[in-house]
Amino acid sequence: MADKNITILAIESSCDDTGAAVIRDGVVLSNVTATQHVHEMYGGVVPELASRQHQAHIVPVVDAALKQAGVSVHDLSAVAFTKGPGLLGSLIVGVSFAKSMALALNLPLIDVHHMHAHVMAHFAERPYPDFPFLCLTISGGHTQIIRVNSPLNLEILGETMDDAAGEAFDKTGKMLGLPYPAGPVIDKLAQSGKPVFKFPEPQTEGLHFSFSGLKTSILYFLQKEMAADPEFIQKHTNDICASVQYTIVSILLNKVKQAVVTTGIKQVAIAGGVSANSEVRRRFSESASELGWKLFIPAFEYCTDNAAMIGITAYYKYLEGRFTDQTAAPEARMDIG
Ligand code: KG4
Ligand code: ZN
């Protein structure tokens, strides 16, 4: 029987969202995120600005998370943080803050892999998936199909060989002159468009993905159409968005269908920022009812970067006694195993 009142303060600062959350016995008591809007005008995250914004946000965000949870620092059992992967200048703010707090309060420290946490976001709210389950993680930096054997045992079955699914959305947005991050904007515009333009799907081995060929075919397509009609993008933005989104979702869905067939596992979970996409949700739900899958998609606040998922993962690490110490350092690149 697990200990009771395991209270964890978790901090996330891997990219451009500063997050803090309090988790008690695996239950989310608070989940606070400060999003940085400063990057929108640059068309992508500017690492130096992200780091400075984390420094400005971290104290108020941690404070708000503790207050909303009704927890004092003296009630804490451990402090958890995102160790990587991510931007070094961003990660270092969360890592240093967590280490200082743990030192001052004499608390154990738990380091968490950001993508492991996206998978464990499925344990923020019931119903939970049973083990083993398949998890498609789709974010700005990753696209992977993972076989999740237990909370701390993850096996990567396939991953992208070049761009991530979120990058495919964001880079398309850049070509169309849309603000960063373009994923949510494309999602919205696509709702009043039709997928009338066809783009080829890449032929990749096994359960691996590739999105760079799609990016190139979109670029050539737009160059050709713009040469014939300089107002092409302006006139057809919604249909272009719907077409690109349709293709990205088809690529993801076909590989997951293949993963279900090869593993025989029919519990499918989707994680990461792109799982907020309405076409992902619609077409995966359709396939789930057609093919008898049990589908899990976290609530919106647990899809994009947040600290609750860091705290949930840390809770399972706490139960297994998997702690780190004051020598912990951020890692820009980091294996999930
Ligand atoms: O997981 P996340 O918040 O951060 C990373 O760890 O990367 O994912 C961010 C990515 C961005 O590429 C963003 O454009 C994409 O998720 N995204 C979406 C949607 N919401 C966020 N992509 C498509 N449709 C959305 N609704
Ligand atoms: Zn993420």
Q: Helical element count?
A: 10
Principal-axis shape equals: globular
- Strand neighbour order, sheet with most strands: 3-2-1-4-5
Structural class: alpha/beta
Record field, number of beta strands: 10
- How is the CATH topology of the largest domain named? Nucleotidyltransferase, domain 5
Helix content: 40-55%
CATH architecture of the largest domain: 2-Layer Sandwich
CATH class of the largest domain: Alpha Beta
Mean pLDDT: 95
Straight-line N-to-C gap: 27 Å
Unreliable stretches (pLDDT < 50, length at least 5) are none
**Rg from Cα:** 20 Å
Q: Largest sheet, described in full?
A: 5 strands, mixed
Task: Tell me about this structure.
The protein has 2 domains: 7-121 and 303-319, ATPase, nucleotide binding domain (Nucleotidyltransferase, domain 5, 2-Layer Sandwich); 127-297, Nucleotidyltransferase, domain 5 (2-Layer Sandwich). The strands form 2 sheets. The protein has a 5-stranded mixed β-sheet, sandwiched between helices. The chain has a 5-stranded mixed β-sheet with strand order 8-7-6-9-10, with helices on both faces. The protein has helices at residues 47-69, 88-105, 114-120, 165-176, 183-190, 212-228, 232-263, 278-291, 300-303, 308-319, and strands at 7-12, 17-24, 27-35, 78-84, 109-113, 133-138, 143-150, 153-159, 267-271, 294-296. It is α/β, with parallel strands linked by helices and 337 residues long. β4 (78-84), α2 and β5 form a beta-alpha-beta unit. The mean pLDDT is 95. Bound molecules: 5'-O-[(R)-(carboxyoxy)(hydroxy)phosphoryl]adenosine and zinc ion (ZN). Residues 114, 118, 139, 272-273, 305 line the site of zinc ion. Zinc ion binds at residues 114, 118, 139, 272-273, 305.
